[in-house]
Amino acid sequence: MKHFAYVGFVFALFTVLTGSPVLAQTTTPAPDQSSLGDYARKVHKDPAAKAKPKVFDNDNLPTDDKLSVVGAPVDPNAGDSTSPSSDSKSAAPASKPEDDQAKKQSEWKSWQDKLTAQKSTIDLASRELDVLQKEYQLRAAAMYADVGNRLRNSGQWDKEDADYKQKIADKQKAVDDAKQRLDDMQEEARKAGVPAAMRE
Known about the structure:
This protein has about 200 residues and is mainly alpha-helical. The chain is built from seven helices and no strands. The chain has a domain at about 105-200.
């Protein structure tokens, strides 16, 4: 019985001795340790933390001011290489939308004139091709209608036939090239912003 009392006493003493440093550690912080809240308050009050550069993201990106992404800010009073003088630059903003619109209209008109000229070239080449084909058909019909003439002039007709076919092929290629050029010009005009009504 004494033995059990002794074991119980030792166990109780061991529990008290090992538990008290843990209890002391959790209840009273050491002088060099501080809580997370104390650290956050210290950082918030620290003036060095306010000296950090401002970081822009989608939430705080300015919408009413210009943002320089790379390089030093541009001096608005500095001379511009594209403008002749600062006086004309100060007067330009008042009439800029009208000037831009007039310039666009002028470019569109130029494109329209080029496209019209190309269409005229295609029409002319197509008419010439039609004339050549009809002339060839008439000559061929006349030649094949008279068997005697065909037999007497077969060599000459073969040469004329080859010439007509070559001229027709050349003219057809010219028409096709002109149509391809028109398609390319219309695509360039579309990329340049020319309205569809002026391209067609």
